[in-house]
């Protein structure tokens, strides 16, 4: 007979990870299991290498209790952030701490074969650099631009990545071992990266990724919204009055991206005779005080604020978090965004609204992808399957 919900070994691990149960007595109280059942579950988790016992806690009379904790050193997860123009690869411990990472400039439109071969090679290198091997890998999380079919682990219906459409990516990572690989959209992963940051204080927030493209990750009641077909958050392709009939790289016209995304700002700079190769170069000019760059980025913030105001009015978040390649120019971009967001959203929705910089900056994609992997490999269902396999 299967365990009742909330009483399996995997569920016990979830309580330990959350800090809700640090002793066997607390597990017994929270689950209603007998002491014998709790001992069996803790022993199974210990044998799987997931739980540490030790470091005696304070005594309340009698023998001090033995504390339980997740063994964050019991393995690692790979973390991959695929951007339009660069690839970041890293390794996290089971607590989500980034142990090491590398970054490579690469245009992902070259296709999955070349990109994923590089990812596998760099993941091997990072594992070695932190004293680990592929045998220590428990899973890999990967973020990527565009709409992602999470069940298949593939990009889908993303006009800018036609060579990736429908290509399952997990098989590429299987070279590193038979462990799970999970995938999600880069903007939603940005929102997930705030799990140990702004989400501690704001369970309803909108994370804006202002980079080569534009998108938002919506968190409602602590849950990230994916939408019916996984396309939630495509803010950059919402219509903007400021864009008029300008052609967008997605094939449509009048998208917000045409007046506010990094690719459009770079294009504008080059049309004015300023040699800029990437939005990161533009941001560097902003930080050096270049007046033209500052005006462009502030205006981009204004355009985003105009469209975002409707989402803020509808969803009533308590925070808007700014991330992506424009985040280092946060003061300039956020100043423009505040101007139009507050002017166009309802006063009630913006009364206590916080506009914040992303917690992890340039590392947000790697931190979020690591958490994506950990949510899977440490989930009660997956842990219970591992235990069943070990016992069978």
TrEMBL record:
Keyword Transferase tagged: yes
Keywords on record: Kinase, Transferase
Transferase is among the record's keywords: yes
GO molecular function: kinase activity
Similarity comment text for this entry: Belongs to the ROK (NagC/XylR) family.
Protein name: NBD/HSP70 family sugar kinase
């Amino acid at each position: 007979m299967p365990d009742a919900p909330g009483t399996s070994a995997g569920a016990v691990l979830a309580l330990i990870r959350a800090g809700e149960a640090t002793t066997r007595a607390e597990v017994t109280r929270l689950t209603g299991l007998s002491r014998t059942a709790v001992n069996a579950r803790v022993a199974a988790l210990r044998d799987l290498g997931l739980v540490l016992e030790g470091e005696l806690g304070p005594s309340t009379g009698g023998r001090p209790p033995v504390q339980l904790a997740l063994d964050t050193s019991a393995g690692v997860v790979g973390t991959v952030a695929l951007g339009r123009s660069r690839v970041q690869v890293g390794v996290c411990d089971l607590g989500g701490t980034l142990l090491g990472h590398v970054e490579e400039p690469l245009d992902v439109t070259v296709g999955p074969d070349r990109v994923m071969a590089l990812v596998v090679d760099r993941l091997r290198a990072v594992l070695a650099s932190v004293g680990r091997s592929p045998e220590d890998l428990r899973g890999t999380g990967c973020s990527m631009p565009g709409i992602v079919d999470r069940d298949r682990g593939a990009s889908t219906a993303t006009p800018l990545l036609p060579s990736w459409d429908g290509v399952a990516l997990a098989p590429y990572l299987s070279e590193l071992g038979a462990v799970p690989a999970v995938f999600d959209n880069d903007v939603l992963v940005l929102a997930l990266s705030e799990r140990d940051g702004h989400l501690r204080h704001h369970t309803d927030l909108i994370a804006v990724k202002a980079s080569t493209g534009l998108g938002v990750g919506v968190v409602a009641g602590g849950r990230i919204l994916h939408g019916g077909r996984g396309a939630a958050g495509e803010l950059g392709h919402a219509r903007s009055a400021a864009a008029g009939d300008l052609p967008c790289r997605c094939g449509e016209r009048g998208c917000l991206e045409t007046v506010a995304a990094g690719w459009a700002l770079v294009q504008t700079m080059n049309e004015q005779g300023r040699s800029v190769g990437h939005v990161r170069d533009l941001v560097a000019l902003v930080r050096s005080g270049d007046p033209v760059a500052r005006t462009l980025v502030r205006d981009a913030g204004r355009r985003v604020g105009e469209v975002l105001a409707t989402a803020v009015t509808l969803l009533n978040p308590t925070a808007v978090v700014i991330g992506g390649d424009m985040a280092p120019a946060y003061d300039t971009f956020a100043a423009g965004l505040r101007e139009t967001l507050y002017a166009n959203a309802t006063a009630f929705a913006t009364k206590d609204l916080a506009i914040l910089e992303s917690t992890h900056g340039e590392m947000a994609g790697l931190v979020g992808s690591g958490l994506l992997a950990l949510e899977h490999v440490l989930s009660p269902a997956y842990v219970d399957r591992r235990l069943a396999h070990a016992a069978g």
